[in-house]
Amino acid sequence: MGSISAGDTAFIIVSAALVLMMTPALGLFYGGMVREKNVLSTIMQSFIMIALISFQWVYIGYSISFGPDLGGVIGDLSWFGLKGIGAEPSDTYATTIPHLLFVMYQCMFAVITPALITGAFAERIKFGPFLVFGLLWAVLVYNPVCHWIWGGGWLSKLGVMDFAGGLVVHLTSGIAALVAAILIGPRRGFGRRSFMPHNLPMTLLGTGLLWFGWFGFNAGSALAADGVAVGAFTATHLAAMAGMAAWSLVEKFHRGDATTLGAASGAIAGLATVTPAAGFITPSAAIVIGLVAGAVCYFAVSLKSRLGYDDSLDVVGIHGVGGLVGSLSIGIFASKAVNPAGADGLLYGNPSLLLTQAIGVAAVLLYAGTASFIILKVVDAIFGLRVSDEDEVQGLDLSQHSEKAYNFQ
Hints:
The structure is a single chain. By secondary structure, the chain is mainly α. It has one domain (6-401): Orthogonal Bundle (Ammonium transporter fold), CATH 1.10.3430. It has 15 helices and 2 strands. A hairpin with a 3-residue loop joins strand 1 (69-70) and strand 2 (74-75). Helix 5 packs antiparallel against helix 7 (166-184) and helix 12 (315-333) runs antiparallel to helix 13 (352-382). The longest helix has 31 residues, at 352-382.
C-alpha cells in the first residue's frame, strides 16, 4: 500500500468537483436546445442524477464496479455501503490518494453517464419511469462495463484501453440513446416541422462549463498531479478547439453558415472523442482527433433525419460516434513515450492494439445496446415511458413538475 501525496490528493479533490459541475452544466447545454415549455424538465433529468446515482454508487455501484473481481464480469459486494473504505490509500486503484477520494471521483463519472442519455428522449418521457430506467441502467450497464475496463475485468485483461471514458461513458450512453430514441419514438411533429432551440446563450454557457469541467474529467483520470495529467489536460483543450473549428468549417461549406450551436456541438464532439485517448497521445495527435471528430460527428448528426430516428439533442452523433472514434484512435495514436503505463499504437509499430480496441468497441456496443433495449422494454411495459399527447403538447415542465421556467406576467 502506498503513502498519501498531499499534491495528488488536492488535485483529485478539485478534479472531482469539476466533474460534478459537468452534470448541471450538461443540463444547461441540453436545456437551451429544447423548447421553452420543456427546459426545466430537461435540466431536471440531468440534475436529479446527482442524487439518484450517488445513492446507488455508495451502496452497490462502487463495489460492483471496482470491487474484487468475479470471473472478469463484475465486482463483488465487499464494499457494500463503502464498508472498510476510508482515508487510507487503495493498493489497487489509487496508491497516493485516499481510497474514499477515488470512490467519490469515480462517483461523478457514474452520475453524468446516464444523464448524457437524456438528450435522446428530451421533451417526451415521464419523469418517474425515467428514474427507474436510470437506476436500472446504472446497475446493469454502467457498473458492469466499468468493471470490465477499469475494475480489472475481462476487457482490461485483454488489453483494451480507455483513459477517461470513451467506452465506459460515451459509447455506453450513445448506444443507449440510439435504442431509446427508436423505442420511445419521435416527438409529435417530427419531420414536419423544426424544433428550434429556445435559448442558445444557455447552451453556450453549458458548453463553456462542460469544457472547463472536462479538464477534471480527463486530466484527473491520471489520478496524480504528474506529466500524464498535464498531457491529458493539453490533449483535452486542443481536441476541443479543433473539434469546434472543424465542425464550423464543415457547416459553413455544407450549409452556408457557421452557427453558434454548431460551434458548441463541435467543441463537445472534440471533448468526447479525445476522452478515451487523452492520457496516451501527443498534442499533435489530439488536434488530429479533434479535427476528425468535428467533421465525422457533424455528418453523423446530419444522418439522423435520413435514418428517421429522433435523437432530440444529438447524443448518438456526438457521444456515441465520438466515443467509438476516440476509442479506435487509441489503437492508432497511443504512445508509450507519452504514458509508459499504456501501449504503442499503429503509428508506433503495434497494429494489434487497433484490433484490441475494436474488440472492446464491439463488446460494449453489443452488451450496452442489448441491455438498454431490455431495460427500456421492461420499464415501458410496467410503467409506460412516454407522456400522453396532451402532456407533450402542454410541455413537460407543467405536466411533470408543475412549474414554468419563465413567468413574464
